[in-house]
Amino acid sequence: MTAYKDQGALVVFSGGQDSTTCLFWARKQFNRVEAVTFDYNQRHRREIDCAREIARELSLEHTILDLGLLNQLAPNALTRSEITVKAGESGQLPNTFVDGRNLLFLSFTAVVAKQRNIRHIVTGVCETDFSGYPDCRDVFIKSLNVTLNLAMDYQFVIHTPLMWINKMETWAMADELGVLDFVRQKTLTCYNGIIGDGCGECPACKLRNAGLKEYLCRK
């Protein structure tokens, strides 16, 4: 990774625990780091404000892209406030899965990256705690990486620092980076839009808080 130090990285950034941890990971790995956030009229829209505030605090170049079309195409619990968030039944995807989201996010991120002469893309997708989302799988990321390189004739590298770790280990990574308190207090993971430890009741909060509790017990 030291060979990449002088090269730039663009982080897919939602203002949540995972993407913020990846943001700090990228800042350690690369001398130049920028962030891109997508506005798709999501349920917990405060995440955009959260991402903006974190980027401002860290003096990051931060781009917010309008991807409202995704909201129109994919009605579900993350794009419609009237739909109650529910975990998936056995063998079913949770109703928070947005069809095509990571495919579009990473594709648009790649377009931005090429325009800025950046080859490294960082995303917080994770196959360990991925809730069954097919677009968080390592095989998808590797496939898309090849596709983007061919589509744009440009050598991108998609980095997934969290791919093979669970939430407890993600908290451990934040602590190793010296930002555990920052991530805990200033990020937004909650489906109900509550910053920090969140509502404690939605699936995202339960996963996040269980990982934190496990990490603090082991620390």
Automatic annotation (TrEMBL):
This is 7-cyano-7-deazaguanine synthase. Coiled coil: none annotated. The keyword Protein biosynthesis does not apply. It holds the Pfam family QueC. Pathway: Purine metabolism; 7-cyano-7-deazaguanine biosynthesis. Binds 1 zinc ion per subunit. One of its GO terms (molecular function) is ligase activity, forming carbon-nitrogen bonds. One of its GO terms (biological process) is tRNA queuosine(34) biosynthetic process. Its EC number is 6.3.4.20. InterPro entries: QueC, Rossmann-like_a/b/a_fold. Zn(2+) binds at residues 190, 199, 202, 205.
